[in-house]
Amino acid sequence: xxxxxKGCMTRLAQxxxxxxxxxxxxxxxxxxxxxxxxxxxxxxxxxxxAVALVRHLQQRIEALDKSGPAINSIIELNPDALAIAESLDxxxxxxxxxxxxHGIPVLLKDNIxxxxxxxxxxxxxxxxxxPAAQDAFIVQRLRAAGAIILGKTNLSEWANxxxxxxxxxxxxxxxxxxxxxxxxxxxxxxxxxxxxAVAAGFAPLTVGTETAGSIICPASLNGVVGLKPTVGLxxxxxxxxxxxxxxxxxxxxxxxxDAALLLNAMTGIDPADPIRRPPGVDTTDYTALLRxxxxxxxxxxxxxxxxxSPEGLESDPQFSQALEVIQAAxxxxxxVELVDxxxxxxxxxxxxxxxxxxxxxxxxxxxxxxxxxxxIVQFNEDTPGTMNYGQTTLIAASAVDFDENTYNDLWQKxxxxxxxxxxxxxxxxxxxxxxxDVGSPGLNVIPLAGYPGIMMPSGIDADxxxxxxxxxxxxxxxxxxxxxxxxxxxxxxARQAPAFKP
Length: 502
What we know:
Blueprint lengths: L1 H27 L7 H9 L5 H16 L8 E4 L3 H13 L11 E5 L27 H8 L3 E6 L3 H4 L9 E2 L3 E2 L15 H8 L5 E6 L5 H7 L2 E4 L19 E6 L2 H11 L32 E5 L6 H6 L1 H12 L3 E5 L9 H17 L10 H10 L9 H8 L4 H25 L4 E4 L8 H5 L3 E8 L5 E7 L5 H15 L10
Parallel strand pairs: 2-3, 2-6, 9-10, 9-11
Antiparallel strand pairs: 1-3, 4-5, 6-8, 7-8, 7-12, 11-13, 12-13
């Protein structure tokens, strides 16, 4: 009888354990593509915990990023993530919810400082060593909002400013990131890991950085939402720099509302950042204008070649369809010609920015193997790695002549030339914003002006690669751009989950 009782008890325990496992799986299955609002609602109703969410994402990362299709988008996971999640769950249970991001995991590009056990290396072996002494300003804001820093994402080494011949999405520390939609295609750079990770469902929110195209290009090719803010809207303190004239962090997410929520959490006044924002910008709620009818009555400029021209339809049928969706949603479309001013000495201005700003950042990091720009160049020379990629950009930056007045004058000229092009179109045609396809000239104008833009998924092409439409406008127009992008998103439902095709 004792054996029978023991056997029944053993079987009962197995059934209970299986039931618990089944419930846990039911609670976490499909979480990878839920929005911030959906995750928060599940937590509020007691159907989900931050701990369960973090565990689920860690398991998914192990199965798809490190194994299986091996996207290789994440360079390092935060060993403290579960402990942080547990603490935030206790806060929620006690009735304290910090913000909509409470208990929500976020992945950061590996050029954004965190004062924990993780490295901040910009993908370079030269910066591996003692972790950063303090969080970047935007990370401080995220932690205060209750977000969980889940890990760091891979990137094009030095944010694509090591050597132009290096493939997008490759770094000496992280290796090569793949595009989760089509593994054989480029994920673009430099925020390749952030875009690939959020597309693949490794986190609901990621943060990238951009100097010239490093948010908008990966967002486009990975089929997600990428917001490149006005330069200076978000602090750059604690971020490995190229030039403070153009550098900016920005949200990379799957939905517009998630991008707005992430932007809300990261904004704030940082006395250490040299750009001052207009009154009211720091208190803007970027979700306030998000309505399905946000495109009604808006005047939006679009590339002239798509105006009743077979050229436009043949070059990008998905963008032509996106224009139809925008018009059907109530906007008035105005054909315009965006002319790239082809500013001179841009490359030299970038080199000067590296020479000016990188040493100031390196001075905040202790015990690095290569604590100066010259030492980094020498480190790469002595430690070429298996791929033996070059470093012509870093060498040029190290050798360039630098003068503060020349540097400021050069950037003022470049930014004014490009800003004037956009402002003239907006004023001449009385536009609320403009849209652009990725195949037309002009994508360089927006970052060189320091102006904002948001890349939106518009579908998938015949090969399985995402297509996109880019909304952009004048300085500090993020709230308006997010609203129009949201209107398009609600009308188009164009984003698709990746198929992980070879």
